[in-house]
Amino acid sequence: MYPAKVGVFQLGIAIMQGYIGYIRVSTVRQGTKGVSLVEQRDAILRYAERNHFSIAIWLKETETAAKSGRPVFNQALKLLRAGKARGIVLHKLDRGARNLRDWIAIGDLSDQGVEVHFVTETLDLQSRGGRLSADIQAVVSADYIRNLREETRKGFYGRLKQGLYPLRAPLGYVDCGKGNPKTIDPIKGPLVKQTFELYGAGHHSLETLGEEMYRRGLRNRRGRRVTRNGLSTILNNPFYIGIIRIQKTSETFAGVHGPLIGSALFKRVNAILNGKTNTRSQSHDFLFRRMLTCARCNYSLIGERQKGRVYYRCHSPQCSGTSLREDFIEGQVAALLQKLQFNESEKAYFKAEIQTMRETWTSRRDEELQRLTLQRGQVKARLDRLTDAYLDGALDKAMFETRKESLLVEQKAVAESEAQLARDGTSFPDRLEQFLELAGNAWLSYQSALFEEKREMVKIFTSNRKVDGKTLDLEPSIPFREVVKRVENSYCDLQRDTPRTLGAILNGLTILNEQELLPELKLIFGCRADHTKDRGGAKE
Question: Which CATH number fits domain 15-148: 3.40.50.1390, 3.30.460.10, 2.60.120.260, 3.40.50.150?
Answer without folding.
Answer: 3.40.50.1390
